[in-house]
Design goal:
This protein is an alpha+beta fold. The protein has a domain of about 80 residues: P-loop containing nucleotide triphosphate hydrolases (Rossmann fold, 3-Layer(aba) Sandwich). Bound molecules: iron/sulfur cluster. Iron/sulfur cluster binds next to loops.
């Protein structure tokens, strides 16, 4: 395959997982061979892989992708020494460490990879990001996920009781920053509001709550509104480019304003009632 790829004298070779199905011993030999060919033939490789350990060994620059988009790009030295995107941090912490005496803090993203055809609003990584904040793109599907996680932990009885309170749970599948939960027959808005407030008080550290602008009774329902999110471009982060709003001073300033505003609107003032 390598001979066929180089016989026409290319300048650029796209190598998509070239060694992923090989034994470790053969893998190292093939990578060495490719490095020799790069030097002798003045080649450039676009090396596509899920294996960050071989990428570190083989590449000069790395672009990390999530849901089909580049979220961080920079030199191997910079990205492996000091990753600036939370997803890159999680990926690097998942690299196996052969020394059993070394403990590695695992930072595995929670939840499942979202459907790329129905991307999360704002930053695509926000539903799984441990550092997500006010402007990262919170929306109805995140609330649905939060409820489902609770029901997985709380058991069947709690699930039966709580999901029966809301008549329009299925509507949470439609992306929106403004949700109106309607009580099912035999229930009322006060029960739904109390349930959401209980979940919030049990898990105040849950990042989703930072994105909640309003949690109120509204007529016969409960309104949940989220702050408008921002889809991050690539921001300069000390020499690498990272698609993360933590590296955008404007977004951080805006988040501080929103957080102060939310504090003012909390119980006793307005907002969450
Ligand atoms: S913008 Fe940054 S902090 Fe916000 S969710 Fe995305 S990766 Fe996390």
């Amino acid at each position: 395959m390598i001979a066929r790829a180089i016989i026409l004298g290319p300048e650029l070779l796209v190598a998509d997982e070239p060694v992923s199905m090989l034994d470790m011993s053969v893998r190292a030999k093939i990578l060495e061979l490719m490095l020799d060919l790069r030097r002798d033939l003045n080649l450039t490789y676009l090396y596509i892989t899920h294996d960050l350990a071989t990428a570190k060994f083989f590449c000069d620059r790395v672009a990390i992708m999530y849901l089909g988009r580049i979220v961080e790009i920079g030199s191997v030295e910079q990205i492996y020494a000091d990753p600036r995107h939370p997803y890159t941090r999680a990926l690097l912490s998942a690299i196996p460490e052969p020394d059993p005496t070394k403990s590695i803090p695992r930072d595995v993203p929670r939840g499942e990879i979202p459907d790329a055809a129905r991307r999360p609003m704002g930053c695509s990584f926000h539903p799984r990001c441990p550092r997500a904040f006010e402007v990262c793109g919170w929306e109805s599907r995140d609330l649905r996920n939060l409820l489902e996680l609770r029901w997985v932990e709380a058991g069947e009885q709690a699930y039966e009781q709580e999901q029966a309170m809301v008549a329009n749970l299925a509507e949470l599948e439609e992306p929106s920053t403004d949700v109106m939960l309607q009580p099912a027959r035999g229930h009322d808005a006060a029960e739904i509001l109390a349930l959401l407030q209980q979940i919030r008080s049990e898990h105040p550290e849950e990042p989703l709550w930072r994105g909640v602008r309003e949690l109120t009774r509204d007529g016969n329902g409960v309104r949940v509104r989220f702050w408008d999110g921002v889809d991050p471009g690539l921001f300069d982060a000390d020499g690498v480019l990272a698609a993360c709003l933590l590296h955008d001073p404007e977004s951080r300033r805006r988040a501080e304003e929103l957080s102060a505003q939310a504090r003012l609107e909390r119980p006793g003032r307005a907002g969450t009632r």
